[in-house]
Automatic annotation (TrEMBL), chain A:
It holds the Pfam family NifU_N. This is Nitrogen fixation NifU-like protein. InterPro entries: NIF_FeS_clus_asmbl_NifU_N (IPR002871). Residues 10-128 form the NIF system FeS cluster assembly NifU N-terminal domain.
Automatic annotation (TrEMBL), chain B:
PANTHER family: CYSTEINE DESULFURASE, CYSTEINE DESULFURASE 1, CHLOROPLASTIC. It catalyses: (sulfur carrier)-H + L-cysteine = (sulfur carrier)-SH + L-alanine. It comes from Cytobacillus purgationiresistens. Its EC number is 2.8.1.7. This is Cysteine desulfurase. Residues 23-394 form the Aminotransferase class V domain. PROSITE patterns: AA_TRANSFER_CLASS_5. Pfam families: Aminotran_5 (PF00266). Coiled coil: none annotated.
Length: 143, 409
């Protein structure tokens, strides 16, 4: 593998989300809080969600981790904001398929998230990318 | 010793990873296995496989001789007085858990203290946390000095007449610090406590003499010392083991079984319930032969040299922070570091693209990570098959990593 292959992992848009994370912070009031960590590597995320009328009204995250986990969290919050909880969960499924290198549905616009496709070629890093998504799924399913 | 020649004895090291010759710098997680260990395990399964301590037949005798022969090799390796003091376990974790669950539960009460340090691996923390919860004992931590070492003054101040167990690692799996176990054991004994030693990162790399250290228990793992996974050792002083109850019951460990009462075998077998890990014990015996042929003192000196060289070379990389003592004095072959803004997982991925294997994460030492104020770190750990050339490649890989991320940012 050369550094050219690394470029499929570290895409410009991923680095942009890592350096300039969107929706960084904590929602106050009666928002839902989900804490999740990756016990094998120490990555940690706190996701806060504002769910209203079956929609994700707002989402923010705090955490510590590598470029892949933090950029994925940034992209995920960006993607689900304003979506119905049903669509947010659907995106979670699509993302999971994408990470496993499976064919995935493309009837929802994934935007920046597609940049994470290359992670599927780096099996050791898939857990980094899915952490924030698991937190989102847990929040919506239990919220 | 000649590391280049030794390297040839490890078949796995002769391969390319991602288009580059493999540079394996993760022996702290698990070591590679020399041909003679792999062959010993294969020979056992090809020629001698049978259950131990029961068959009257020839294979049964061979398997028993192989298994008990490995026990004698372990005894000699750590200079225990008798093979009665050598219990085969699944690894260091099981060894430490056995001490906590058997000795600990029987001897600790509310108000007693257990003393461990901030640099312990989770397997030398959680068994004691659980024991403290179950018995009402208090768990206390030895503080670390600024460079990550333990001072004997702090040991004297922390260990009291209330302390019943002191459990400290011989070598930190993160900082590479070699702890003064003999002195800590003396302080523990002066206060009436027993001394437990986590030897996982120690026994593969240096001569360990349990009588000289005067430790009461020592746990270590086969797979970190050129042996297979699934086998470890619990050494314990005979008079302590004799008074301890087994924690696993069933076949192999019994003397006589009645309908409502049973009695146990003699030491060490009363702690070895079930069919043991025979092939792995034989593999561990072969690993000990291998290490002793080269010489533990030679291995220690080689790794010490590599650690000093690595600290020198890595310091050349801009933005490098090396954790633990600033010099290689008293440091085993472990160098843990972080590279500026680049997260250790990203460092490890870029190095992997260059065929270099390092560990990234919390290294099963979350309290230590907290003490270091790091959520994760990268670690290069060396063994007898590593060379200065490996460290040169690591240094070049880290410079490339730095350049790569300054380009993409």
């Amino acid at each position: 593998m050369s550094f050219n292959n690394l470029d499929t992992l570290y895409r410009q848009v991923i680095m942009d989300h890592y350096k300039n994370p969107r929706n960084k912070g904590v929602l106050e009031d009666d928002s839902l809080t989900i804490n999740m960590n990756n016990p094998t590597c120490g990555d940690r995320i706190q996701l806060t969600l504002q769910l209203e009328d079956g929609k994700v009204a707002d989402a923010k995250f705090e955490g510590e981790g590598c470029s892949i986990s933090m950029s994925s969290a940034s992209m995920m919050t960006q993607a689900i904001k304003g979506k119905s909880t049903e669509d947010a969960l659907k995106m979670g499924h699509i993302f999971s398929d994408m990470m496993q290198g499976k064919e995935y549905e493309d009837d929802i616009d994934l935007g920046d998230i597609e940049a994470l496709q290359g992670v599927s070629q780096f099996p050791a890093r898939i857990k980094c990318a899915t952490l924030a998504w698991k937190a989102m799924e847990k929040g919506i399913n239990e919220g | 010793m000649n590391a280049r020649e030794i390297r040839q004895l490890f078949p796995i090291l002769d391969q390319e990873v991602n288009g580059h010759p493999l540079v394996y710098l993760d022996s702290g997680a698990t070591s590679q296995k020399p041909r003679q260990v792999i062959e010993a395990i294969e020979k056992y399964y090809r020629e001698d496989n049978s259950n131990v301590h029961r068959g009257v037949h020839t294979l049964g005798t061979r398997a028993t001789d192989g298994y008990e022969g490995a026990r004698e090799k372990v005894r000699k390796f750590i200079n225990a007085k008798s093979t009665e003091e050598i219990i085969f376990t699944r690894g260091t974790t099981t060894s430490l858990n056995t001490v906590a669950a058997s000795y600990g539960k029987a001897n600790l009460h509310e108000g007693d203290e257990i003393v461990i340090s901030y640099m312990e691996h989770h397997s030398n923390i959680i068994p004691w946390q659980q024991l403290a919860k179950q018995t009402g004992a208090t768990l206390k931590y030895l503080p670390l000095q600024e460079d990550g070492t333990i001072s004997l003054e702090d040991v004297k101040a922390t260990v009291t007449g209330q302390t019943k167990i002191v459990s400290v690692t011989l070598v930190s799996n993160v900082l590479g610090v070699i702890n003064p176990i003999k002195d800590i054991a003396a302080i523990a004994h002066q206060n009436g406590a027993i001394m437990v030693v986590d030897g996982a990162q120690g026994t593969p790399h240096m001569k360990v003499d349990v009588q000289d250290l005067d430790c009461d228990f020592l746990g270590f793992s086969g797979h970190k010392m050129c042996g297979p996974t699934g086998i470890g050792v619990l050494y314990g002083k005979k008079q302590l083991l004799e008074n301890m109850e087994p924690i696993e019951f069933g076949g192999e460990m019994i003397d006589f079984v009645g309908l409502y009462e049973s009695t146990w075998k003699e030491l060490p077998w009363k702690f070895e319930g079930g069919t043991p890990i025979i092939a792995s014990a034989i593999g561990l015996g072969a690993a000990i032969d291998f290490l002793e042929e080269i010489g533990l003192n030679e291995i220690e000196a080689h790794e010490h040299k590599l650690a000093a060289y690595a600290m020198e070379r890595l310091s050349e990389v801009e933005g490098m922070t090396i954790f633990g003592p600033k010099t290689a004095n008293n440091r085993a072959g472990i160098v843990t570091f972080n590279l500026d803004d680049v997260h250790p997982h990203d460092v490890a991925t870029v190095l992997d693209a260059e065929g270099i294997a390092v560990r990234a994460g919390h290294h099963c030492a979350q309290p230590l990570m907290k003490w270091l104020k790091q959520s994760a770190t990268a670690r290069a750990s060396f063994y007898l098959y590593n060379t200065e050339e490996d460290i040169d490649k690591l240094t070049q890989g880290l410079i490339k990593t730095k350049e790569y991320f300054s380009d993409v940012f």
